[in-house]
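Researcher: Batch entry, complex prediction.
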Amino acid sequence: MKGITLLLVAVVILAGIVAFTAPASLHADDSAAAIFVTKIPPGYRDWRLISVAHEEGNLNSFAAVLGNNVAIRAYREGKLPFPDGAIIAALHYGHVPSEENNKVFGRSQSFVAGPPTNIQFMIKDSTKYATTGGWGFAHFKDGKPGDETFMKTCFPCHNQAKARDLVFTRYAP
Amino acid sequence: MKGITLLLVAVVILAGIVAFTAPASLHADDSAAAIFVTKIPPGYRDWRLISVAHEEGNLNSFAAVLGNNVAIRAYREGKLPFPDGAIIAALHYGHVPSEENNKVFGRSQSFVAGPPTNIQFMIKDSTKYATTGGWGFAHFKDGKPGDETFMKTCFPCHNQAKARDLVFTRYAP
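Model: Structure tokens for the complex:
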């Protein structure tokens, strides 16, 4: 019993030290490491559809937005904020006319996904990404993560969608 | 042994009768019943992404194209024609501007999936749908299948994509 008590005391002290030092060390370290995600979540291409999107202008992008199981469940249940573990993936492609489809239709009206341009992720972890609304942001072009300057633009923009937990994309039924 | 032999003979005769009468009865029946699909394949909203598409003009549609496991496997392996059992789903939505996104971007550039307009399916069964290239076509608006006049337009149009087994949509990596 005495041994267990001592062990418990030690654990409590240790937990105190960790709790006390962890935020300090987070701030001391490169905060980018905590905020930005640099590893592509495995299996994302098999995730279920949230919705589709198109941006005109410089982006000229076609997006398929997918979610892992946690994200899809939260969307379908209308649960906000998203629970920890939710991951949303935006697969971006060029928005290109389809000559082969237009030939069949007999007029220029068809646009399809062109070459992939980038993949972006939002990963919910309210502890790890506390300073950016609980979301870790990721951007990959040709498999390589975006640089820090670019990645710092994610949160301020998404933060304008506070009412929907920083997520722009709505679920398409 | 004698019993089994007699049974086998009976099965062979029966099979011959079925093989001989089946095509005849198919032609005698309403062929529309064989060509057009009138039941929504269950679970399609959970299928994996093939690609996205947009049609301008009268359609003004946004499509998410999904595939069941057989279809996705065939796409990824580049297998043509699609094997029996493959089902491709086109979830169509209105192509509508997103005022809430445009506000954040500070300009009109963002389009999202509006209200669902219809769901279309192509179901591969080279026997059942032999007269329409092995594909059964389906169209549902508010859960109701398209009428025969409308459904008869599917095959002649898709038949122009013969080189890709009547399927327009290419796989987005």
